[in-house]
Structure formats: C-alpha cells, structure tokens
Amino acid sequence: MSTYTVIIATHRRPKLLQRALQSVRAQSFGKVDMIVVSDIICGETQAVIAAYLDRHDIFVQQNGVPGPADSRNAGIRLVTSDYVVFLDDDDELSPGFLADAEKYLTGTKQVIYTDFLVSDDVMTGDDVLESAVGKISLKDKAVNDVYVKNFIPNSGVIYPAACLKTRAFDTTLPLNEDWDFILNILKSHSFNYAPVDGPVIHKRRGRNGENRGTRNLDLLPETYLKIYKKWPAPTLQLKQERLSLMGAIGMAAELRDL
C-alpha cells in the first residue's frame, strides 16, 4: 500500500492537467498513487492521462454533477493509501513536497497543513506567457481562524485517508467547497502546521489584467452565511469576528441568533 494518493479533479484543461501530473511524477518521495476524475468525457484529457498515469493509477470519467466536489468524492471512494492530497488541475505540487512532509505525519487523527507558493500567471487560453512566484507562510496563523475565513488551500493539506471515508465535499455549494470540507474535518481532527513548501497555486489573468476564475463571486456572501450556519464558531471571539465580517456587507443580522 502506498503512503500517498493525490486526487485530481479535472474539467477539459489538458495542458494544465499535464503540468499538475508532471509535478506529482516529479516528487522525490517514491511511488505516489494518482486518482484523476474528469467530470466530462474529453479526448485530449484521455491523451494526457495515457502519457502520465501508470497501471497503479486510476482514471475515472463521469457525466454526473459537474464541478470538482463530486469528482473529489468519487476519488475518495477509491483511495487505498495512508494519506491523501487533493490537487486542482490548474495547480501543481512543489518539488520535494511529499518527501519533506513525511516526517510530520504522526497518525490517523492528525492532519497537517503547509506553506504554499502563489504564481501570478499572465495567460492566453491555457498557455502561460509569464509568471511571478511568491511564498505564503502559514507559520503564525492560528488554525481556528479558518472558522472566520479560509487561509489554507486544500491542496496544502495532507489528510489521513481514514478520516475521509465518512466525509464528502458539499456538491450544493457554488464555491468554497474546499473551505467547507476543511471545517468538516477540523471538527474531529487536529490540524498541525508543517514548515514545508506545499502546492503552487496558480492565479490566472489575461493580458489585459482581467482576473480569471472569479465566477459566482456574487454568491460569496450567501455561501459564507451557509458555511457559518453549518459549522458554528467554537468560541465567542470567533463568532464576533464572523459578525464583524458579515456586518461589513450588511448581513450580520442573519448570524446573531447562531
């Protein structure tokens, strides 16, 4: 049985998926299982899969609910390794991430989260024209602050596989399903910081500076409210911080009785 499985949800982005798969194959840890789930049948995606997955890996094509949440849930059901990392098809893993993280893996009740890199990419289609990369350290962040606003990329979290088998990503959320999932795990597992470079998160923009990947942002306030109601703040201070954040957009009243 392998130590790690990397689950990648993908949707018709073969060039970016290739970069993600290359970053997993380049890990110095040794054998790492991959489960790639496409929410659409795509010949170009199939060609990339044929080039980068081996007989121990799994590729699933499904025509179910579109979006990464359902694809990740399908991947969870197929895991046989000890630990799981989720990776978006347009991001990648830093070299040495999994090998560096191994010494921080201490058991089935402890989740680790890591630092990460942010790459500001100027793109045409799926072609990267130029990039500027900076590092984000989470060393001084209090884990429970995630109850107010998420600061941990889901691809920077290493989950014990045992803790995922009864959990699922919420397919009803139009965005922030990663944050919701982290809160789901946090209610019963401790999160420990590991000072290693984890994923490279790619922020995409066009030549004219327009930000890509910002769909459904008009739904953000309602999504925050739904997540707040679903996962109550564990302390009065965190509840007050939530009220302050929602008050800035005129929605504090919906939280006062929670």
Shape: globular
Number of helices: 7
Query: Might you state the CATH topology name of the largest domain?
Result: Spore Coat Polysaccharide Biosynthesis Protein SpsA, Chain A
Low-confidence stretches: none
What is the C-alpha radius of gyration, as a whole number of Å?
18 Å
CATH class of the largest domain: Alpha Beta
Report on the structure:
- This protein has 258 residues and is α/β, with parallel strands linked by helices.
- The protein folds into two domains: 4-215, Alpha-Beta Complex (Spore Coat Polysaccharide Biosynthesis Protein SpsA, Chain A), CATH 3.90.550; 217-258, no CATH class.
- 27% of the residues lie in helices and 27% in strands.
- It contains seven helices and nine strands.
- The protein has helices spanning 14-25, 43-52, 68-76, 97-101, 177-186, 220-230, 236-247; strands at 4-10, 33-38, 58-61, 83-88, 92-93, 110-124, 127-136, 157-160, 190-205.
- Strands 1, 2, 3, 4, 5, 6, 7, 8 and 9 form a nine-stranded mixed β-sheet that branches.
- Helix 1 (14-25) packs parallel to helix 2.
- The longest helix is centred in the N-terminal third of the chain and has 12 residues, at 14-25.
Summarize the structure.
With 258 residues, this protein is α/β, with parallel strands linked by helices.
